[in-house]
Amino acid sequence: MLNIQKFPFIFSLILLGIGSFTTLHAQQYLIKFATVAPEGTTWMNVMKEYDQQVRKESGGRLGFKMYPGAVMGDEKDVLRKIRNGQLQSAGVTGSGLTEIAPKTRILDSPFLFQSYGEVDQVYKTFDTEFTQAINDGGYILLGWAEVGFVYVYTNKPVAKQSDMQGVKMWVWEGDPVADASFKALGISPIPLSISDVLTSLQTGLIDGVYGPPLAAVSLQWFTRVKYMMNLPLADACGAVILDKKKFNEMPPDIQEILVRNGKIYMAKLTKLSREDNAKSIETLKKQGIKVINVETIGNTTDFALMGAQARQYLASGNLKEKGLTPELVKRVESTVLDYRNSQTKKSK
């Protein structure tokens, strides 16, 4: 047996090694994270990079355990499991944000944005306000993870509002923004969970869906539709959120690593998502999807008019008392218009 008193230096090294191993490998702060994003997508790849970086900077004390591909259920299921303590974090779209910070749903407003420059300007202008709304809802915003421009895909060509009549359009179950959008378009959509969409397309229950091009490819929806409108329905917002109670259990240095890297990697995700969505449009075309040009009336479309009407519905509906007010709608619309006018002047 080793005589510790004879070999104090060796014993000290052993203790140092054990201490280092504990610091590097004892994961004190495990965050269970869930999302509907499938494994292998850009969304999950960037989340894994984020995880690797926070593990590295924290010496292994901090890390994520991830559940992709809706294995934990739809976003409502995930938020319920966070409340129950089964999960602590999620990647959510507007559907999830409706429960947490309803006023942020103005970001998903139909036919509001015409360019990513306008989108960026609104996020920049309202970041503090919307981050506080998420905080008030019981969560920490780790980063905006924009899903991208959303398009409508159907089995008959849609070039104007009246062409939507007769389309058996899906709507994400329980989404008030989508409900208001389709109400303004004069159609009654069929509410379904996102996990039921592909099967419903296959059976003919629905023949119209909406989503970013990358999602249409990743979720295989494109295999059951023929046409895509060239005008974005909306810019789908998204965010990575963390239960505030879990966050408050962490020491300041861990909190700082988590939040700082969240902003960095979610900004990267937004950039890559935009690039992937552009590539996915080309993929859809190669797969035989026909892109339909929307008819214009002067310098606008009847869809733009429907968008303004949808925002009025939202600001007078059940989200009004939760912060999505006429005043907020007006401020966001003014921000978009001011940016648009400034870009027009620059181009002259």
| The CATH H-level homologous superfamily | Bacterial extracellular solute-binding protein, family 7
Q: Please summarize the sheet with the most strands.
A: 5 strands, mixed
Whole-number tally of structural domains: 1
Helix/strand-derived category reads: alpha/beta
Strand content: 15-25%
What CATH calls the topology is: D-Maltodextrin-Binding Protein, domain 2
Q: Any low-confidence stretches, pLDDT <50, length ≥5?
A: 1-25
Number of DSSP strand runs: 12
Order of strands in the sheet with the most strands?
2-1-3-11-4
Order of H and E elements: HEHEHEHHEEEHEHEHEEEHHEHH
Give descriptors for this structure.
single chain; 348 residues; alpha/beta; D-Maltodextrin-Binding Protein, domain 2; five-stranded mixed sheet; 12 helices; 49% helix; 16% strand; globular
